[in-house]
Each structure stands twice: as structure tokens, then as C-alpha cells.
Amino acid sequence: MDKKITVVGAGFVGSTTAQRIAEKELGDVVLIDVAEGIPQGKALDMLESGPVEGFDSKITGHNDYVAAAGSDIVVITAGVPRKPGMSREDLLNINADIMKKVCAEVKARCPNAVVIVVSNPLDIMTYLAWKLTGFPAQRVMGMAGVLDTARYRAFLAEAIDVSVEDIQAMVLGGHGDDMVPLVDYTTVSGIPVRQFLDEATLSKIVQRARDGGAEIVKLLKTGSAYYAPSSSVVQMVESIVKNKKRILPCAAYLNGQYGIKDMFVGVPAKLGSQGVEAIIEVPLTDADKALLQKSAAVVKDNIQKLGL
Ligand code: NAD
After folding, report:
1. Helix ranges (DSSP H) in the chain
2. In this structure, which topology does domain 145-305 adopt according to CATH?
3. Which end of the chain is more exposed for a tag (fewer CB within 10 A), N or C?
4. Probe ligand 1: pick from 16, 224, 231, max atoms within 8 Å of CB?
5. Measured in angstroms, how far is the CA atom of residue 11 from the centroid of ligand 1?
6. Above 80 in pLDDT, residue 87?
7. Atom of ligand 1 nearest to the CA of 88
8. Percentages of the chain per state (helix, strand, coil), in multiples of 5
9. Residues 173, 144 contacting (CB under 8 angstroms)
10. Whether the Cβ atoms of residue 229 and residue 147 lie closer than 8 Å to each other
11. pLDDT, tens digit, for every residue of 97-136?
12. For the stretch 280-292, what's the b/e string if a residue is b when 16 or more beta carbons lie within 10 angstroms of its beta carbon?
């Protein structure tokens, strides 16, 4: 394959991400984890599914970063997932230490890579990855908005009884309880969603999307979601690898856009071979503006907690 894509962390999100990348033949995959034997075993198992699934991507597993050298894209999923009752912010310090180790390797071995951060708390880990790698902000982003939007779209499709493919939507803000699903920009094949659902139903769906991660953590009891998260990362990887220039919500560096400065917050971004090639600013209602500012304030507070 032309592209080399490294996935750091061979846990639930990392391994399903590697599998989806290989199955879509987006590139050769290097899977890295500190747990001995796990990335090697999972990578070999995936490679052996190639003849059945019909993909030629190579997948290898490692405990060091030698094979990652020169990667085009690095997806960072290394970290500890949330346990029931645990907020994303509880993970802050544990995952920040992991991020420091991972980013030192990425900076040294993959100096031209586009980095997609998945580890939580997402907006802060993305900021940290940007600081630690020293990469241009365009080449560092976080995955959250595609997932939050996917959850919102799935619930809307169910309530309206239409195909998920026909729901267009955008979720802004930090990846947390303060995310901002934009009802005004939600359509069903271009038709405003309010033609299909009343305000009370829409509010319930918006709230369920906000609580989407916690709903799954509560059911699983150990660990958090990974099928939809890995699908969401791979949609971003695909847009970059194929230079599709899709407009996807992702945590991107803001330098004044939406009135927010020096922070990674979820906004509509154009993803191409250069990474975040543009940030799209859309007019917001006063209520959505206030929610976005509130969401950004939570991110800022966590950045300060880490002393960044
Ligand atoms: P997991 O526990 O299954 O996997 C994490 C893996 O990271 C483990 O295999 C662990 O050995 C590995 N790891 C730990 N330290 C490492 C290091 N220094 N170098 C390399 N690997 C290391 O967890 P998961 O369910 O795959 O979740 C991974 C992360 O993604 C968590 O932080 C979780 O909260 C986050 N997550 C984010 C989103 C999102 O929307 N952004 C969605 C789901 C999960």
C-alpha cells in the first residue's frame, strides 16, 4: 500500500481502528502497544483475515516504534478508558503521562505525519499532542465530533424512521457533556429536521447524544465504546488519505474562530492530505453560541489544570 498508518494503542478502539483501516485498504497498518504480545497477536490475527475479507493491507504489531518510522498518519488511542462513574476529566493525569511517552516517539520517528488523537479527555489530549510534537496545528486533530454526530444521526434516523444516510448533522464543542448538536443545521435529505420532529423529541435526542458515551459505559460496565469510535476515526483517516476534503466535525486548533483562541475544540473542518485544511465558521444562534463558549470554558479549565 502507498500509505503507512500507525495506530498507537492496541486496545478496543485501536484494534478495531486497525481492522477497519486494513479492510478498507487505506494503507499498511503498524499497531503499537506497551502490552507484550498483544499488538503482535492482534495484528497477525487481522492479517490472516485478509484472504477471506479480500484486503492486501499489511498489518504488523510492535512494542516499539521502529516500524512506525515515516508514517503518513498516526492515530493515538493509547490510554485508559473510562470506568462507570468516571468522568473523562478523571482520566486527565493518567493519560497525559501516556501521551508524553507516545508523542516523544511520534515526533522523532514520524515528523511529517498527520496525528489524530482519540485518547480522552479528547480536547486536552489533542492540545497536549500538539504541544509535545511541535507539529503545525494543521497536522494535529482530535476525533470526537464525527462520533458525537454519528450518535445524534443514529437516534434521529430511528425516531424519524428513515435511513441514517439521509441525516445530515453537525455537533460542535468539546467532547463531553457540553457538546453542542446544531439542530438548526440538521436536515433529512436537505429538509429541516423540525419538519419531522417536535421540539420535545429533538431535545430528548440531543440529550441522549450528549450522554451517548456514558450510556455505553454504563451498559458495558468495564470499558467504553469502540465500534462507533473506530468507524469515526477511519472516516477521518479516509478523508486525509484520499484527500477527499470532507467537512467533518473534529477537534481543531482555533485561533480566534468562533471567538475561541489557543484551544482545540470541535468545529467543522475540511480534512485533506495536509490535515485540517480549513475551519468552517457558521453563524450560530445566541443559545448555541453560549453553549459553545461554555464548552470551551471547560476545555480551558482542564488545560490550566495540566499547567499547559
Ligand atoms: P483500552 O484499554 O482497550 O486500550 C488502551 C490501550 O492503550 C491498552 O491496550 C494499553 O495497553 C495501551 N497503552 C497504555 N499505555 C500505552 C503507551 N504508553 N503506549 C502504547 N500503548 C499504551 O481502551 P480503549 O477502549 O481502546 O480506549 C482508548 C482511549 O480512547 C481511552 O482514553 C478512551 O477514553 C478513548 N476513547 C475516546 C473516544 C473519543 O470519542 N475520542 C471514544 C472512545 C474511546
Report:
1. 12-23, 38-47, 50-53, 92-109, 122-133, 145-160, 199-210, 212-220, 227-241, 286-305
2. L-2-Hydroxyisocaproate Dehydrogenase; Chain A, domain 2 (3.90.110)
3. C
4. 224
5. 6
6. no
7. 34
8. 50, 20, 30
9. no
10. yes
11. 999 999 999 999 999 999 999 998 899 999 999 999 999 9
12. eeeebeeebeebb
Question: Is the whole-model pTM more than 0.90?
Answer: yes
Core vs surface per residue 152-165: b (16+ CB within 10 A) or e: bbbbbbebbeeeee
Q: Which of 184, 257, 179 is nearest to 169 (CA)?
A: 184
Between the CA of 78 and the centroid of ligand 1 the distance, in Å, is 4
Burial of residue 142 (number of CB atoms within 10 Å: 0-12, 13-18, 19+): buried
CB 39 within 8 A of CB 31: yes
Percent above pLDDT 90 for the chain: 83
Sign of CA dihedral 238, 37, 63, 226: positive
Q: Is 256 exposed, middle or buried (0-12, 13-18, 19+ CB in 10 A)?
A: exposed
**Active site amino acids:** 175
pLDDT at 83 over 80: no
Which of 36, 103, 118 has most ligand 1 atoms within 8 Å of CB, for mutation?
118
**Whole-number Å distance between alpha carbons of 180 and 153:** 14
Contacts of residue 304, defined as CB under 8 A and 6 or more positions apart, other chains included, come to none
Burial label, 209 (beta-carbon count in 10 A; 0-12, 13-18, 19+): buried
Architecture per CATH, 4-142: 3-Layer(aba) Sandwich (3.40)
Q: What is the residue type of 123?
A: D
Hey, where are the domains in the chain? 4-142, 145-305
Atom 1 of ligand 1 has which residue's CA nearest to it? 11
